[in-house]
Automatic annotation (TrEMBL):
<feature type="binding site">
    <location>
        <begin position="180"/>
        <end position="182"/>
    </location>
    <ligand>
        <name>ATP</name>
    </ligand>
</feature>
<dbReference type="InterPro" id="IPR004753">
    <property type="entry name" value="MreB"/>
</dbReference>
<dbReference type="GO" id="GO:0005524">
    <property type="term" value="F:ATP binding"/>
</dbReference>
<dbReference type="GO" id="GO:0005737">
    <property type="term" value="C:cytoplasm"/>
</dbReference>
<dbReference type="InterPro" id="IPR056546">
    <property type="entry name" value="MreB_MamK-like"/>
</dbReference>
<comment type="subunit">
    <text>Forms polymers.</text>
</comment>
<dbReference type="Pfam" id="PF06723">
    <property type="entry name" value="MreB_Mbl"/>
</dbReference>
<dbReference type="InterPro" id="IPR043129">
    <property type="entry name" value="ATPase_NBD"/>
</dbReference>
<keyword id="KW-0547">Nucleotide-binding</keyword>
<dbReference type="GO" id="GO:0008360">
    <property type="term" value="P:regulation of cell shape"/>
</dbReference>
<comment type="function">
    <text>Forms membrane-associated dynamic filaments that are essential for cell shape determination. Acts by regulating cell wall synthesis and cell elongation, and thus cell shape. A feedback loop between cell geometry and MreB localization may maintain elongated cell shape by targeting cell wall growth to regions of negative cell wall curvature.</text>
</comment>
<comment type="similarity">
    <text>Belongs to the FtsA/MreB family.</text>
</comment>
<keyword id="KW-0963">Cytoplasm</keyword>
<protein>
    <recommendedName>
        <fullName>Cell shape-determining protein MreB</fullName>
    </recommendedName>
</protein>
<keyword id="KW-0133">Cell shape</keyword>
<keyword id="KW-0067">ATP-binding</keyword>
<dbReference type="GO" id="GO:0000902">
    <property type="term" value="P:cell morphogenesis"/>
</dbReference>
C-alpha cells in the first residue's frame, strides 16, 4: 500500500458550508511547495481541505511512501533512522514523481471523501513558468490514478478567478502570488495571461535568510521552523511607513557551547531577511510595467491583488505602492484562492474558452 489511513481529526479541514456534498465530480487543487489545498464546489461555496505537502518515505527507497500530509508532518525530525519526511515539491516544482503522486492521491481522496471513482475532473494550479515536461508530469500522475480529465492552469489565472476578478475584461487586472517556493506577477486580460514574470523564490527563502542572519548576529543556530514562526509572528518588509518593531524570543543552539540559548528576533531582522524577495518582486513588477500597454494600465491600477501566504507580511502593500505606484489589495483568502479558482474551472471548464470570454465582454 502507498500510505496509511490518516486520522480525520488531525487534518485541518475547513467546512465553509453546511451543505452535504455527495457524488463529487470536480475538484480544484493547489499543489503547493508547503501546503496542498483542495477545493470542492458545493453550491456557490466550497469545501476546503488543507494538507501539508509532506510525505514520509523509506530512506533506502524514497519512492516507498509510508505516510502523507499531517501524519508525515508529525514525523518531521522525530522519525526512526530509516524513515525520512520530505517535500515532494521544491520551489514549486515536482522533485519526485512517486512522492507527488502519493500527495495527489491523498488530495483527491480527501476531496472526494475516499470516493476517487466519483471524480470526473480535476484542475491543478501550476506555477507560471512550468515547463511542458512538468505540466505533462501532473497530467500523467492524475491519469495514473484514474482521472482522465485533467486540466493544468497557471496559479495566477486560478487566483484571479478565485478572487472573483473580471478576467474576461479587456481593461486588465494583475495578480501577485507570493508562495513558499515560487512567486508570480501576472497581467490578465480577455480571460488569459497577457504577461507574466515568475521567480523561484518565496517565503521559504525568507526563513533560510533569517537562519543565516541569526547565526551571523548571535552565533546561534535556529531551525527553519523557528525562523518561519518569527516571520509569521513579527515579520514585516522595509517601507517608509513607521511599523511597530515587534519582538519574539526563541531558543536556538549556541555554536560555541552547543547549549540551548534564548535570543530575540525582531521585525527589522525579518525585514532584512525578506529584502532579497522584495528586490526580486520589485524587479518583476518594474519589468511588467515597462512592457504593459497603456490600454491595461488603468485596470492594473484599479485591480491588483496579492495572494499566497507571504502576502500577509506587514508593510507589503505600502512597499509596493512606494516602489511602483500600484495600490494593491491584499487577498482576504490568500492561501485558498488558487484552489478555489481551480475548482470554479473544474466545475465549468468552458469558462476558459475564448468564445465564452468574448461573450462575457458584450
Ligand atoms: N502571516 C504570514 N506572514 C508571512 N508569511 C507567511 C504568513 N503565513 C504564511 N506565510 C508563508 O507563506 C508561504 C506559504 O504560502 P503558500 O501556501 O501560498 O505557498 P505554497 O502554495 O505552498 O507554495 P508555492 O506556491 O511556492 O508552491 C510559507 O513560506 C509561509 O511561511
Amino acid at each position: 500500500m502507498f500510505f496509511k489511513k490518516e486520522s480525520e481529526k488531525k487534518e485541518n479541514k475547513e467546512k465553509v458550508t453546511r451543505k452535504k456534498v455527495s457524488n463529487v465530480k470536480s475538484l480544484g487543487i493547489d499543489l503547493g511547495t508547503l501546503n496542498t489545498v483542495v477545493a470542492v464546489p458545493a453550491g456557490d461555496k466550497f469545501e476546503i481541505y488543507e494538507i501539508p505537502s509532506v510525505v514520509a518515505v523509506k530512506k533506502e527507497d524514497p519512492s516507498h511512501v509510508l505516510a502523507v500530509g499531517e501524519e508525515a508532518k508529525l514525523m518531521l525530525g522525530r522519525t526512526p533512522e530509516d524513515i525520512i519526511a520530505v517535500r515532494p515539491l521544491r520551489r514549486g516544482v515536482i522533485e519526485s514523481i512517486s512522492q507527488a503522486k502519493a500527495l495527489l492521491i491523498h488530495a483527491v481522496k480527501k476531496g472526494s471523501k475516499n470516493d476517487v471513482s466519483s471524480v470526473e475532473r480535476i484542475v491543478v494550479g501550476v506555477p507560471g513558468d512550468v515547463s511542458e515536461v512538468e505540466r505533462k508530469a501532473v497530467e500523467e500522475i492524475s491519469k495514473e490514478i484514474g482521472i482522465k480529465n485533467v486540466i493544468t492552469i497557471s496559479e495566477a489565472l486560478a487566483a484571479a478567478i478565485g478572487e472573483g476578478l473580471p478576467i474576461a475584461d479587456a481593461s486588465g487586472t494583475m495578480i501577485i502570488d507570493l508562495g513558499a517556493g515560487s512567486s508570480d506577477v501576472a497581467v490578465i486580460s480577455l480571460g488569459g495571461i497577457t504577461d507574466i514574470e515568475t521567480f523561484r523564490y518565496g517565503g521559504d527563502n525568507i526563513d533560510e535568510n533569517l537562519v543565516r542572519l541569526v547565526k551571523e548576529k548571535y552565533d546561534v543556530e535556529i531551525g527553519l521552523h523557528e525562523a518561519e514562526k518569527c516571520k509569521i509572528k513579527v515579520g514585516m518588509v522595509k517601507c517608509n511607513k513607521e511599523l511597530e518593531n515587534k519582538k519574539i524570543k526563541i531558543i536556538g543552539k549556541c555554536s560555541k557551547t552547543n547549549k540551548p540559548k534564548e535570543i530575540t528576533v525582531d521585525s527589522k531582522m525579518v525585514a532584512e531577511a525578506a529584502e532579497p524577495l522584495m528586490k526580486k518582486l520589485i524587479n518583476a513588477l518594474s519589468d511588467i510595467l515597462e512592457r504593459l500597454s497603456p490600454e491595461l494600465i488603468s485596470g492594473v491600477y484599479k485591480r491588483s491583488v496579492v495572494v499566497g501566504g507571504v502576502s500577509q507580511i506587514r508593510g507589503l502593500k505600502e512597499r509596493i505602492y512606494e516602489e511602483v505606484g500600484i495600490p494593491v489589495k491584499i487577498s482576504n483568502d490568500p492561501l485558498k484562492v488558487v484552489a478555489k479558482g481551480a475548482a470554479i474551472v473544474a466545475a465549468e471548464p468552458r469558462a476558459l474558452e475564448p468564445e465564452i470570454r468574448l461573450k462575457a465582454m458584450k
